[in-house]
UniProtKB/TrEMBL annotation:
Organism: Corythaeola cristata
Example GO biological process: mitotic cytokinesis
Keywords tagged on the record: Coiled coil
Presence of the UniProt keyword Flavoprotein in the record: no
Membrane-spanning parts: none
Molecular functions per Gene Ontology: GTPase activator activity
Gene Ontology CC annotations of this record: centralspindlin complex; cleavage furrow; midbody; nucleus; spindle midzone
Species lineage: Eukaryota, Metazoa, Chordata, Craniata, Vertebrata
Domain of life: Eukaryota
Coiled coil: 21-80
Stated name of the protein: RGAP1 protein
Length: 112
């Protein structure tokens, strides 16, 4: 009788361990599926960041190009002797402010 009781206790413990193992395998499968989904999301997010960075670099390059054009126009206007008669004092002041801002902005180290 004692051997039968030990055998039954061992069988129950074995069944319980088997159920625990099955639950652990199911949980592992769920976690792995969730991890795979998160990795896909991360990949998409990284790709999106890369696309946005490329857009930003293109926009910054275009901005620098436009700032340089503005600076060249300003320098040409200020160099010409006839410009003082054509441009009012206010227009010269506005051009100076714009050119100064563009020059200052393009010389800032954090921009590139």
């Amino acid at each position: 009788i004692q051997i039968a009781q030990c055998f039954e206790a061992t069988r129950r413990r074995c069944c319980r361990l088997e159920q625990d193992g099955q639950r652990a395998r199911e949980q592992l499968a769920r976690v792995e599926a969730e991890r795979a989904a998160l990795e896909v999301k991360l990949k998409h997010a990284r790709n999106q960041v890369e696309v946005e960075m490329k857009k930003r670099h293109r926009a910054e390059a275009e901005l620098e190009k436009q700032e340089r054009k503005l600076q060249l126009v300003f320098e040409a206007l200020m160099r010409e002797p006839w410009s003082s008669g054509v441009l009012s004092g206010e227009q010269c002041s506005i051009l100076s402010a714009l050119a100064g801002r563009c020059l200052g902005a393009s010389l800032m180290p954090g921009r590139r």
